[in-house]
Amino acid sequence: MNLAQATVLLWVLGSLQAFEIVEKENIFQRTPCPAFLMFDNAAYLADMSFELPCHCKPEEVSAVVWYYQKHLGSGHTKVLTDFDGRVLTEAAQVRVGSDLLVRFSIHMFSLLVFRAQPEDSGLYFCGTRKGDYFYAYDVDIQSSERMVATFEDQGQEPFADEHHGSLRVFTTFWEWTPCDRCGVRGEQWRIGLCYLQSPDLSPRYRKTLPDVVSCGSRAVPRQLRAKARDHVPELLLRSCLVPCEKKKKIQEGVMALFSYVAKVGSRPWLPPVPIQFHQQRLGHGLIISCPGARPEHAVAWDKDHQYLYRTQYLKGVNGSMRVFIDHGNHLHIRFTQLEDRGIYYCWRQGVRIAGLRLGVTSRGRYPVSFSNPEIRAALVLTLIGYLLITAVFITIHLCRCCCYSFRCYPNFSP
Predict the structure, then answer these.
(1) Cα separation of 135 and 61, whole Å?
(2) Which residue range forms the structural domain that includes residue 315?
(3) pLDDT tens, 30-71?
(4) Where are the beta strands (DSSP E) in 152-227?
(5) Residues 331, 353: one domain?
(6) Are the C-beta atoms of residues 352 and 343 closer than 8 Å to each other?
């Protein structure tokens, strides 16, 4: 590519980007900001990533700042901004448990929050540096710790609606996911979040349906929220079977190269998906994640030729499970054993995309790290035991000193 072609290509890309910005500004011109600030209700499951668009702003505002409050009118407000050289956050770099200030990005006036936690529930405002608000959201992040799984193939049914006078508590289900496997029997599921309907909701919060908001919304009075506390999110599962899409045939030239490199009469083994090797110490825990997968995706796990169905391996099905799949689509192996060796394949949205060859060893020296939860637990138990022994020792000597001081120390002399 010569200099002239490169210049034309850059001009075309710049024109397309400018067209995108102009289109975005035209949307703001057609959408006037409300005279009275309202809150749009939105509910998500923990560990999900979500986007909050700033649907309106004045034409003279070229950049927005997002604000977060736990409760309306609270004194503590977090300022979420990408100004002053802040690098945009990527979902792959976010760790569980990180503060909200390191788990967000702003792109084209929209706020992106990665791996949201129940502590992130609250009010989000789109505004300027001066504190002028244009648009606001009421976000409810519901925990998956007590999520209940319902297996449709076993005849189980979701929770029935709860009625407390004029209050109705129910589950709103999302759409079914695609089948998590192809060519063999797979599973699909839908996430259900807690919602309620009541005429006693705050009128300042905008509802999709009349008098209906999520159970953790700020529009719900405290006494009503307490009645809906026992209605937990649900996961509805069922079996499915879909054919696989035809894969493109490998070019003849590539096959000829493989045949040339391989030994006579044999061909090299080609893995169906990229495979990574991992060595794990015997007796230690391991958590495996599927690349690029999110909690709302259809994710499946296989060990070699064994299918790990959620009917048997979902977290909570059996309290004593050593190998299980959590609600965030992660595969957990507790107290790794020699029988866990093998290749673990990961399916995402019905396509097998990656594999992990797991090796288990009982030899070798591993560096001590305080980030290891097992090491931290051992140190805490050792410290507690030492403190208890010290407390008993000091108590005994204090009692002896007190008895000696009051002349009640026993005399064993004849």
Answers:
(1) 13
(2) 274-361
(3) 556 767 788 999 999 988 888 899 888 777 777 788 999 988
(4) 162-164, 167-173, 186-197, 205-206, 212-214
(5) yes
(6) no
